[in-house]
Amino acid sequence: MISVEEALEKVLNYVEVLEPERKPILDCLGQVLAEDVYSTIDIPPLDNSAMDGYALRAKDTRGACESSPRYLVVVGEVAAGSMPAQEVRPGTAIRIMTGAPLPEGADAVVRFEDTDEVNRKSSGGDLSHIGILCQVKKGSDVRGRGEDIAKGDLILKKGKVLRPQEIGVLASLGRSTALVIRRPVVAILATGDELIGVDQPLAPGKIHDSNNYAIAAEVSRYGGIPKILGIGRDSVQSLTKKIYEGLDADMLITSGGVSKGDYDIVKDVLAEHGEVGFWTVCMKPGKPLAFGVIKKTEGGREKKVPHLGLPGNPVSSMVTFEQFARPAILKMMGKKILAKPAIRAIIEDDVMDTDGRRLFARVSVTKRGGQYYASVTGPQGSGILTSMAKANGLAVIPENSKGVKAGDMVEVQMLDWGEEQGDVKKLPVVSIVGKSQSGKTVLMEQLIAEFKRRGYKVAALKHSRGGMEIDQPGKDSWRFAQAGSDAVLISSPDKLAFIKSVDHDLDIEEILPTVGPEFDLVLVEGFKKSKIPKIEVHRKELGDDLLCSPGELSAIVTDGSFYTDIPQIPWGDTVSVADFIEKNFLRAVSCQW
Ligand code: AMP
Ligand code: MG
Fold it and tell me: Structure pTM?
């Protein structure tokens, strides 16, 4: 049996990022940009008005107020889409609409509400003049040329996933097409003599094929183009024929026929016509899984089409799709974030039947009082597809645990969230932030000692803005680094040091993977701009404000008080801070057993 991670690595090694294609921008939604996009124009192209009002010279409004208006001669009018025909000279104004180019000579706009226009109109007054009721500064209500985008600027970088706003930006640049990584065509084949189509009446011993539909919908959801091949029968001949119909696709996904039953022949066909990757993964549901490539010759050259053979049980096929096919499709599309977005939630039921495999329990996640809760969606048999329909998450119960009890903290993969939305890393990480002198380093020290006392393995991380010198000149490790080694490791009977050269100030996300899996908690000092959970240390004497906005914080440690829902812990009460971290970030199953 191999682990879920090993299986995923093998799958990802088989698939490649596809080639780019140029197409109309509206067809590019969700695809990855394959070119850097520079602007050839300024946006806005001219200074223009941000309001409906009067374009004038700011100087001419000096001292204007309601009781003492400044009167200007109205010399013209300009609407959006046309160019001003007159210029604004001292003592004059031009009536202007939002988006219309600012006339020559004008340097500000006064909106209608701050003029006497309405009064003048209602009293049948003289519209050749206008009374200005307030003083404005130069540039007031003027949108400057190039304010949004300047000619020559890099606007969208290669690798960007195009959302509606990027499509809008492309349009504003005057681009009708974009170069994006192509969507993969995924051929889908259900196998089994018991299967009949959705439009056929049930006959004894038969069931409707649901996998083709669920899998095709999954393929579409993640950006692929599904191509349903239909139903393959449990014979080598039928399966071989069907599989070959799918070989012009970028990937083939079959369901069923991969377990130990007599008629389970997908693997035999695969062994005959391709290479078989692996068969059993340490997960539940979904243990039997086939992965490999099918070979075909195209124009005299051998082509290999990746094939993923999912188990037949409808829940197993969906759960394995999420873990393996989804990241493969995302990789082919050029996406960088492949992990399923996950949160930490308190489980509301006992889940004990793991069989030593990683269990993916179907759960319904709700958020109450700032905390996520996950409750199991009824019977968990791998044939019970409605348990999937009721679920919005998959709780991940680690293989090294005996299960979880109600009240335990678990990781939950969110089925309906976008890949960018996950808000937890697997390894619990908490950052202590605060202004200088707030006492964050002392709190770090005390927390490290407190967590050690509680039996946790702690890693502490500090950002050293001013650089650091840890390698002593003359030592062998220093000489290796001088010789140009990208990383130097020094190991001794009681310490291991890993020194890696980097070319930029790393983000926390880039640093965390170097922290070994054996740690229970990473305590970070600083990194206030990162997305990791943060606790701010605040002292009244340093001001009433916080360094971070309250919405970004998990808790505040303070000797004062704030009017907010965010938990507040008295300054100096390290035990309560540790309790808070333990309860919210550490009550993970692996620590319970
Ligand atoms: P298999 O992996 O082929 O042994 O199938 C395991 C179970 O999943 C059997 O009970 C099948 O009837 C069921 N099954 C297989 N393929 C499908 C499908 N396309 N739609 C619905 N159920 C299926
Ligand atoms: Mg079957």
Answer: 0.72
Report the mean per-residue pLDDT for the chain. Answer: 91
Interacting residues of 579 by C-beta distance below 8 A, sequence separation 6+: none
Check if 442 has its Cβ closer than 6 Å to any atom of ligand 1. no
Residue for token pair 């083939």:
252
39 in Cβ contact with 152 (< 8 Å):
yes
3-state secondary structure 275-306: EECCCEECEECCCECEEEEEEEEECCEEEEEE
**For residue range 254-269, what is the model confidence (pLDDT) as tens digits?**
999 887 765 677 778 8
Q: Which ligand is nearest to the CA of 189?
A: 1
504 class by beta-carbon count within 10 Å (0-12 exposed, 13-18 middle, 19+ buried): exposed
Distance 314 CA to ligand 1 centre (A): 7
Neighbouring CB atoms inside 10 A of 579's CB total 14
For residues 95-100, give the mean pLDDT.
97
Q: Look at residue 517 in the predicted model and tell me its pLDDT.
A: 62
- Each residue's pLDDT tens digit, 552-577: 899 999 999 998 888 999 999 999 99
What is the whole-number distance in angstroms between the Cα of residue 225 and the centre of ligand 2? 25
505 Cβ neighbours under 8 A, 6+ residues apart = none
Helix (H, G, I), strand (E, B) or coil at 415: coil
Structure tokens at 22: 């140029």
Closest-CA residue, ligand 1 atom 10, reads: 313
Mean local confidence (pLDDT), 283-299: 88
Q: What element of type H or E holds 154?
A: strand 154-156
- How confident is the model at residue 588, as a pLDDT? 44
Which of 191, 202, 207, 267 should be mutated for ligand 1, with most atoms under 8 A from CB?
Answer: 207
Distance (Å, whole) CA 328 – CA 249: 14
Q: How far apart, in whole angstroms, are the C-alpha atoms of residue 106 and residue 453? A: 71
The tens digit of pLDDT for each residue in 517-560 reads 678 899 999 888 887 889 999 999 999 999 998 878 999 999 99
Ligand located closest to 190 CA:
1
Distance from C-alpha of 162 to C-alpha of 28, rounded to nearest angstrom: 7
CA separation for the pair 189, 195 (Å, rounded): 12
